[in-house]
Amino acid sequence: MPDTDTHQLSKDALFEREALTWLPHVARFAQSLARDPADADDLVQETFLRAYSAWDTYEPGTGGRSWLFTICRNVHLRTVHRNKRVVAYDDPEAEAMASAGLYQYAVQRGLDVMFDRIELRDALQRSIASLPDEYRLTIVLIELEDCSYAQAAQTLNIPMGTVRSRLFRARRLLQEQLLAFAEDAGYGRGRQAEPSFGPTAESVT
Amino acid sequence: MTTFAIPCIEVIHQLWDYLDGELTPDRAQGIAEHLEACAGCNAVSDFEIAFRDTARKLLGEAPPVPALRDRVVAALRAKGFRNQR
User: Fold this and answer.
1) For the whole model, what pTM was predicted?
2) Average pLDDT across chain A, whole number
3) In this predicted complex, what is the ipTM?
4) Chain B contact for A158, CB < 8 A?
5) Do B13 and A44 touch (CB under 8 A)?
6) Looking at beta carbons, which residues of chain A come within 8 Å of B9?
7) Of B23, B45, B59, which Cα lies nearest the Cα of A139?
8) For an interface test with B, which of A103, A111, A181 has the most B Cβ atoms less than 10 Å from its Cβ?
9) Domain ranges of chain B
């Protein structure tokens, strides 16, 4: 067999092992980017075609998944030409207070143990889908794809501090929605008043 | 009132960093010691852990997408890719 064929086979075997193996994860990430299933599938295909074209620049063992996520996001941005920027809620202290307030609210309603007792899969999927893009992408990378803050920052091309604040906010938004779902489904002690998820004086000492 | 080396507000602020393993070892140790001694913060931590574990359990595994894989492989083959399977 000529050397060029051997090289090609070895390159393709490596691509299959280090890139194609992440296809389900790239597909899920693409769905969180594109929302529309057909657009997401197109995005996945384009991601792998570009990755294959650029495979010679990939350093084996350096994290094929993160590399593919970055390509996927760049392809998506170029495809839709989106310039929309959402200013992330970036007040760590207020977020911390609000987070503790949310927990207090759950305790008051008897919902602090809901994660163990209620079937939340559909509600969780809907809640993630309803998050603003910035928050959804961040939480998908960290919670579902198990990326570090640094990997997520690189993939999304944002500072680590922004990853942190978006993640904090995304988790709280999800928890609020799951609490509302649980209450609407009749769990806990019922809705007594308009919920207030903001910081409360007694939340944090 | 008990006085902690790290105040509650800082623990709550850095709780997710701690749970995500993003703190320095010294800081993580400080947070861990606070959680051990502070029932209030420990309860919040338990709540966040339950949320995280639920999310990962329910949604953690990316579902296989065989039809999409076939489509992608076909497109790659048109570019010269020769897969083993």
Assistant:
1) 0.70
2) 79
3) 0.71
4) no
5) no
6) 93, 96-97, 204
7) B59
8) A103
9) 8-78
